[in-house]
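S.,

Sequence below, as promised.
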Amino acid sequence: MSNSPWSSYGRIPLGSEKNAPGDPRSPVAGVVNEMIRGREQLTKYLDGAMREYFEIQSGSSGYRNIIANALAPSDRPETIEERLARLAREAQSRRPAPAPLRKPRSPR
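The prediction came back faster than expected:
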């Protein structure tokens, strides 16, 4: 085991190749996996937010486009209910899929 003061702050001690973070027996494996999962979720969220921002900036999305689509004449007359249902479906299809819910950990 390393005598370095940094090992007490969560660093992997030197010479611990037998307990690498990928090894399920490693004491830091769960923490590393949780950090990687959190980083992936954050990356997905930021990618979606940036994509939405640039769509709004380019004019292909946003309130101006939604209002223009709502006020545009259609090929056939449609009722207000049909139009609202269609616009709601289109808005739902543009949203990213929600992340799957995780089960809470059971207390030990």
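Residues 18-60 form one domain.

Coffee later?
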